[in-house]
Design brief:
- This protein has 13 helices and 9 strands.
- With 331 residues, it is of the alpha/beta class.
- The chain has one domain: Spore Coat Polysaccharide Biosynthesis Protein SpsA, Chain A, CATH 3.90.550.
- The strands form 2 sheets. It has a 7-stranded mixed beta sheet, sandwiched between helices.
- A hairpin with a 4-residue loop joins strand 6 and strand 7.
- The chain is globular and about 65 Å long.
- The C terminus is likely disordered.
Length: 331
């Protein structure tokens, strides 16, 4: 006896009608597919048609920001004076820590006042010309800023405004192209502070990194207060990148678990017990007395300290405190 020929599509539809239970179960699945499809189409529409949001609500606010930017450039000499000797140009490479191949990235997207205050602490921390600024602001505020360019190694503008995930993949691309062993990434609204008045933040961190690289062959990321300031292994980002479909919120909650499938994410306080550096949240731009460690520390710690948002089990040593989302993902 010959086997029955396969049912045509129309015949399958008729046959499904004979089973009301089967048809009932298929309705939610169809609705979910339609809903997800519509949601994706809306997101793509907004992605390609929306104008980039300006950080200023009016022309007068933009002019005020530019005036404050001009005024802050005058402080460049004071910032350079606060730079530790180890951060000054090394004769051969012109970079601090010439025995290592790395960079310190800051992605600037908005709020120049806070960014400028934060950058001063990066300079005073001893990173000097190792710093690379990614200018992701709507009107490219810092690419032609003579004060910023005098302090850092390089300012790279983005062609268009990038999402958080795209920005992370951009600095990973640069690290791969330049064959860095690792790179640091710091938020543009945090302050770096050494463990004491005679210590240098960068020297303490580099000593920790040398210990990690010598003892932890499988290290992928070292967190210094979660990823407010972190060291990222270039070999790792050759394999794992941020998902650009998760543009901002929770993107780290997707990225770090994928990193941990092969690499270790480490809390510096656990692997470098003697490294007492601090990374502090900045809620507003501050004129910091960089030549006075205690006064700077008092000013930074005197503000309300907001707990960092971390993903559940994102990094050892963190309890998963909540932080308002816009601040948790500041680049």
């Amino acid at each position: 006896m010959l086997a029955s020929p396969p049912l045509l599509h129309s015949q399958r539809s008729i046959k499904l009608k004979e089973g009301p239970v089967s048809c009932w179960l298929r309705v939610p699945a169809k609705a979910a597919v339609i809903l997800l499809t519509c949601s994706s189409l809306v997101q793509f529409y907004l992605l390609f048609t929306s104008e980039p949001a300006s950080p200023y609500h009016s022309r007068s606010e933009g002019q005020a920001a530019l005036r404050s930017q001009t005024g802050m450039v005058a402080d460049t000499a004071a910032v350079q004076a606060a730079m530790p000797a180890s951060a000054r140009a090394e004769p051969t490479t012109g970079l601090p820590f010439p025995d290592h191949n790395f960079a310190v990235f800051i992605i600037f997207s908005w709020n120049y006042k806070i960014f400028w205050s934060s950058l001063q602490t990066f300079i005073a921390a001893g990173w000097g010309k190792r710093i690379i600024i990614i200018d992701n602001s709507p009107n490219r505020l810092v690419v032609n800023d003579s004060g910023v360019n005098a302090l850092v190694g390089e300012v790279i503008p983005t062609r268009v405004q990038l999402t958080f995930s795209q920005g992370q993949n951009m600095i990973a691309d640069i690290a791969v192209e330049r064959n860095y062993t690792f790179f640091f990434w710091g938020h543009s609204d945090v302050a770096l502070l050494a463990s004491n008045a005679t210590a240098v933040f960068a020297e303490e961190v580099m000593a920790c990194m040398e210990k990690v690289m010598a003892e932890r062959a499988d290290w992928g990321i070292v967190f210094f207060h979660y990823d407010w300031f972190s060291a990222v292994r270039t070999e790792m980002v050759r394999e794992v990148r941020y998902d650009t479909f998760i543009t901002v919120y929770k993107s780290d909650c997707d990225f770090y678990p994928r990193v941990r499938q092969k690499w270790r994410t480490l809390d510096h306080s656990k692997v470098c017990s003697g490294c007492g550096v601090q990374v502090l949240d900045m809620k507003r731009g501050l004129k910091l007395p960089l030549d006075d460690y205690q006064a700077t520390k008092d000013m930074l710690t005197g503000a309300v300290i907001v707990p960092v948002f971390v993903c559940r089990k994102a990094a050892p040593g963190f309890a998963g405190h909540q932080l308002p989302f816009p601040h948790a993902v500041t680049m």
